[in-house]
Amino acid sequence: MEEARRRVSDLKRKHPEIDVEATLAGAQMVETYPQGWVGHDLSIGGELAGRSMVKSCLAWAFANGVEWARCRKALDYLRGGGADPPFGYYHDTDLVEGRPAGVPFHCLALDANPVSGLILGYGEYFGFHRFVCLLGEGYGGPAVRGSYAFDPRTGAEIDVPVRLPFLRADIDDICAYRRTKLDDLKRAADAILGQAMHARHEAERARVAGKAIDEAFAMCGATPGEMLTEAQRQKLFLSIAQKIAPFVLHQMKGMPPNLVPAASPINTDLLAEDPGKDSGEA
Questions:
Q1: What is the secondary structure of the chain as a DSSP string?
Q2: Tens digits of residue pLDDT in 74-111
Q3: Segments making up each domain of the chain, as ranges
Q4: Contact at 8 Å (CB) between 121 and 133?
Q5: pLDDT tens digits, one per residue of 107-142
């Protein structure tokens, strides 16, 4: 009920008339699993999202000592006036060196290169939304490189060097979206979401099993420290099976019919029996 209390308390900030305790007093906890597929939109958000990404790269460049005036491409775009977006999504290669597997980190990187004359920014959201940004060109200052990343689940900073080995022709391709493909984006997303879903599955399996065992022992009539009778054992196992059945059936949804075992009816009469009727205690 902690989650319910937090949500109702959040609502109370906007609607002071809500009585948190009275609302929670009528609440009931019901466990269900989602029906059908859970979708995720792999797009970021269009024009406004693009401006936000360019702003982030520009701020990171300034934080690393690159003057605003040198980032003319970014400034012209952000100030309006019809300038072309100076960024594009990128999934051709992995620009992060030593990428930590399965970590959905957020990242910003900068490469101000006096040899190519380009000031480039790079960003990632959740480890798979990846973009390259042309902040400025004609740069003749000192070489500047820097990156920053953190794990949004914990807030812990992560050391992830980023390389941006691009020339002007590469940037033209990136901004024309010729360096990103849906299959490559899906592959990058799978590397993050697949591990996250597996971890959630394992945590839920442990939770369901632990709760089922605790509740089954409580209702089978067993006394702590004593051996179970045969009737108590039967009642215990049946109770556990019934409590984990929703989780197991949910996991089997979508499996080919030949892989789903036939379910036999569960005899619930044992749940109504008195464990004391069996006298064969060990």
A1: -HHHHHHHHHHHHH-TT--HHHHHHT---------SPPP------HHHHHHHHHHHHHHHHHHTT--GGG-HHHHHHHT-SSPPP-EEE--SS--BTTPPTT---EEEEEEEETTTTEEEEEEEETTTEEEEEEEEES--S--EEEEEEE-TTT--EE---B-----HHHHHHHHTT-S--HHHHHHHHHHHHHHHHHHHHHHHHHHHHHHHHHHHHHHTTPPTTSPPPHHHHHHHHHHHHHHHHHHHHHHHTTS-GGGSPPPPPP-THHHHS-GGG-----
A2: 999 999 878 999 999 999 999 999 999 889 999 999 99
A3: 46-180, 187-275
A4: yes
A5: 999 999 999 999 999 999 999 999 999 999 999 999
